[in-house]
Amino acid sequence: MKQVPITGVFKKALPVLETIQEAGFEAYYVGGSVRDALLGKDVNDVDIATSAFPEEIKKLFKKTVDVGIEHGTVMVLMNDESYEVTTFRTESTYQDFRRPDSVTFVRSLEEDLKRRDLTINAFAMDQTGDIQDFFGGERDLDEQIIRAVGKAEERFNEDALRMMRAVRFASQLGFHLEADTFYAIVVNAHLLENIAIERIRVEFVKMAMGKYVRQGFTGFVETNLYAYCPGLVHARDALENFAKVIEPIQRERQMWALLLYYLGIQRGKEARAFLKNWKLSNQLLNQSADLHQLLLYRLHSEQTNETVYRYSKELALDAETCLDLINQPFDKKAVENIDAALPIHSRKELAIDGKIVMAENQQRGGRWLGDAIEAAERAVVRGDIANETAEILDFLKKNDYV
Questions:
Q1: Calculated CA dihedral for residues 119, 124, 129, 131, nearest 10 degrees
Q2: What does the buried/exposed string (b/e) look like for 196-227 if buried means 16 or more CB atoms within 10 Å of the residue's CB?
Q3: How far is the C-alpha of 77 from the C-alpha of 40, rounded, in Å?
Q4: For the chain, how are helix, strand and coil distributed in percent, rounded to 5?
Q5: Cα angle, residue 345 at apex, residues 343 and 347 outer, rounded to 5°
Q6: Among the residues of 329-366, which ranges form H helices?
Q7: Residue 142 near residue 119, CB atoms below 8 Å
């Protein structure tokens, strides 16, 4: 068994482990941090598991927060850092395929790790860097296999989201689904209907933006999980094409825009309805829908002053990135040049406002005023007139706006 050097965040969290162990309890780093360390990846945070019960942990540390004490988790605040410390536990039956009916605290590390989802997430590491691996996780890392802990069907019936996590890790790590695990997902894919869309979305986004997206989407499609995700029941071919993007996607709004493109969605209203079903935040929904529309425009037209102004430099650059990802001609330099030459970047910079226009027209505001301001804004952005008060007012007079 390999040994992991205690450096970085592991070393920083060491006083927490030592405090617990000095009190006579067991304490280990567990889960993803250990897996990533074994893979030689950067580790940014750690989770700690212990034989001490929550009330015992609270007595050992000056500052704690009950973040999930009913499930055995206490947040320990030490040296300006926070660490989630969770008591070893077993779980009862799962009636809703997502939450255990009850949780029982135990003193056994092996019993605790037995309830975890995948072998590559079921490691524990002590303060010296020695690894505890009861389920062949290190072998599966070496062989690049995604395997459920114990009986796959039992793990997926406990929490159906674990099926999405399996294909997500395949996408992020480039691993293959082990045969029994694959078959158990096929048989139980329908249980995903019991999981909140928000939880599914988190795993789907990570999978779609994984370094090995084709690997992940192969499992996602072939196990039929996709059929239980919003708007994807008839999207097998589209998803397979999406997985052929030439590089990993870096921004979530790019991912949604490209997915809409591969789904063949054209209308903005239809795109927004699809994204709404995935329960995106309003900001992300609007950005993704706008980016999708700009991407469709760019497939047959060049960027202009109006597109860069309307959508913003950032979104226009994202559109060029999307074109690159689908192996279409793109031109980020053109966007940079257009943005640099724009006479204004927002309506606030326009050399007139409503008060000036109303004073010139000697008329109270109304729909005509909005039309006038919008016409002036378009003319200035296009470069038809200079952003100067007199020239704008002259333009409005000539075009019967005032």
A1: -50
A2: eeeebbebbbbbbbbebbebbbbbbbbbbbbb
A3: 28
A4: 55, 10, 35
A5: 100
A6: 332-341, 354-361
A7: no
Cα 46 to Cα 106, 272, 275, 354, 357: the distances in Å are 21, 38, 33, 56, 61
Q: What is d(CA 394, CA 402) in angstroms, rounded to the nearest whole number?
A: 9
Q: Which residue type does 387 have? A: N
Task: To the nearest 10°, report the CA torsion of 31, 35, 41, 43.
Answer: 20
What pTM was computed for the model? 0.91
What local confidence, expressed as pLDDT, does residue 360 receive? Answer: 85
What structural domains and CATH numbers belong to the chain? Answer: 1-139 (3.30.460.10), 144-244 (1.10.110.30), 250-342 (1.20.58.560), 348-398 (1.10.246.80)
Contact 167, 219 (CB under 8 A): yes
- Average of pLDDT values for 257-263? 98
pLDDT tens for residues 84-134? 999 999 865 555 555 655 678 889 999 999 989 999 999 999 999 999 999
| Cβ neighbours for 65, distance < 8 A, ≥ 6 positions apart | 74, 75, 77, 82
3-state DSSP call for residue 365?
Answer: coil
Only one residue has tokens 């597109």, namely 307
Report the Cα 12 to chain-centroid distance in Å: 27
Residues facing 91 on adjacent strands: 103
DSSP 190: G
Residue 361's pLDDT is what? 80
Residue 372 and residue 400 in contact, taking contact as beta carbons nearer than 8 Å:
no
DSSP-derived letter for residue 121 is G
CA distances from 340 to 155, 293, 333, 336, 378 (A): 55, 23, 11, 6, 17
HEC string of 15-69 equals HHHHHHHHCCCCEEEECHHHHHHHCCCCCCCCEEEECCCHHHHHHHCCCEEEEEH
CA separation for the pair 107, 85 (Å, rounded): 14
The token pair that represents 284 in the structure block? 């992300």
Tell me the chain's radius of gyration from C-alpha atoms: 28
CA distance 274 to 230: 8
* pLDDT value of residue 90: 85
Q: Under the phi-then-psi rule, with left for phi > 0, alpha for psi from -120 to 50, and beta for the rest, what region is 245?
A: beta
